[in-house]
Amino acid sequence: MTAPAVPPGCPVRPTDTHGLTPLSATTGPDPARVHQELRETWGSVARVELEPGVPAWLVLGYRELLTVTRQEKTYSRDARNWRDLAEGAVPPGSALLPMMAHRDNVIGYDGPEHQRLRRPLVDGMAGTDQRRLRRSVEAVCAGLLESFTGRGTADLVGEYARVVPLLAIGGLFGLDRSEGHELLRSLAALFSGPNASRAGSRRFEDILTGILRERRAAPESDLTSAFLAHPDLRGDSEILQSMVVMISAGNETTTSWIANTLRLMLTDRRFRGRLRGGRLGEDEALDEVLWQDPPMANFPARYALHDTELGGRAIRRGDCLVLGLAAANADPAVRPADPYDMLGNRAHLAFSAGPHACPARVPARLITRTAVEIALRGLPDVTLDVPAAELPWRPSPWTHCPASLPVRFTPLPAAAAAPGGGP
What gap in Å lies between CA 351 and CA 75, rounded to an integer? Predict the structure, then answer.
């Protein structure tokens, strides 16, 4: 750890990033070690570097994170309050901007405007037919398993965990499978470099605009029709942005949840034994993953609206604060040492907290639980095809998620992948 020791309460010059730990170090192979070293050096709020020359505060403490997420009049979600961005310290081509720049949607506002834009999302999730969604996810999962069960090998991230959520969420909006796969390709392009990103963004919005037009002409029982009818959404632009937020955010986080649950099954003998032996229910297993590896390890961001103090640190107006969801979950001030003491405990911060907490936790759990159930049933003797220490990790400062899960299993006939099938 190279972060300089600074006495609690001592202000840090906002432009000084010399020796600071890169935020990306907290999502590498051993994030717990990095979190521990940051706590030992800084306490519950640590100074880190987002990218060269761009500092931020990483909120490591559970109670401090609740303070930041619940006090909108002190900590804003609106990136237009970010001093380093406003003063040009963040370059126009920064890789931070896709996640952190202001967006004219529910993510980019606080207060009444945020509440107005959030209501359609909350109402849409409340109106989701859970049985219908589960049947849809089962069919998606079975189809994906069928594509590789006869082969005896697969990548359970690229061929499964990354595909299931987008097809399931796309289905909620009325997209068929071919449109869902095309949406997946456009999302991949979004993160493939500037030229491909622009083309991917255009295609992504084109697909959603198409379904928007179809549902305006002929409404159905899907989220697109619900958004069109919702009185709080004003015009196609707001409807489209709401769709983009739901699909992109839901896909990324649910992918990570599925991937990390499967990874634990393949690499953690204790976790696998408790789940397969019936000592750990499926929902308890999913909650253990949320405590240990939340879908977003770090979440951007809040921006101080005035000078304040947090965790013994002097926070200046315009400072950026990153929500360390994984670190806060592991805060020794609230986390018992014995994992058995966590069974049934959903006080984790995997979905954040406060007014901007995730509104889609119920469908996300349903999609994840179904995907894990069908993978375990359809691949009963699945094993990791590389040493656990050699698993690659996604190069992201935001998610602690394997880039791939190469596995091997006994080849099975296609029918074994269907819901209710298998040995």
Answer: 18
Angle at 53 between CA 51 and CA 59, to 5 degrees: 60
Say which range, 76-90, 164-178, 267-281, 303-317, has the weakest mean pLDDT: 267-281
* Nearest by Cα to 374 from 344, 342, 412: 412
Task: State the Cα–Cα distance between residues 329 and 297, nearest whole angstrom.
Answer: 10
**Strands 320-323, 54-59: pairing kind:** parallel
Q: Hey, what are 401's tokens?
A: 């998620």
The closest of 212, 278, 260, 206 to 393, measured between CA atoms, is 260
Are 405 and 156 contacting, i.e. CB atoms less than 8 angstroms apart?
yes
Q: Across-strand partners of 408?
A: 153, 383
Q: Residue 135, Cα to own-chain centre: how many angstroms?
A: 24
Among the listed residues 186, 234, 178, the one whose alpha carbon sits nearest the alpha carbon of residue 206: 186
Burial of 381 by CB count in 10 Å (0-12 exposed, 13-18 middle, 19+ buried)?
exposed
Angle of helix 194-217 relative to helix 235-267, nearest 10 degrees, comes to 120
Q: Averaged over 229-251, what is the pLDDT?
A: 93
* Structure token pair of residue 327: 């670190």
Average predicted confidence (pLDDT) for the chain? 88
Single out the residue of 7, 79, 11 nearest to residue 50, CA to CA: 79
Query: Which homologous superfamily does the CATH classification assign to the domain defined by 21-174+220-417?
Result: Cytochrome P450 (1.10.630.10)
Task: List, edge to edge, every strand of the sheet that includes 21-22.
Answer: 21-22, 45-51, 54-59, 320-323, 299-304, 75-76
pTM as predicted: 0.90
Token output for 191? 């993160």
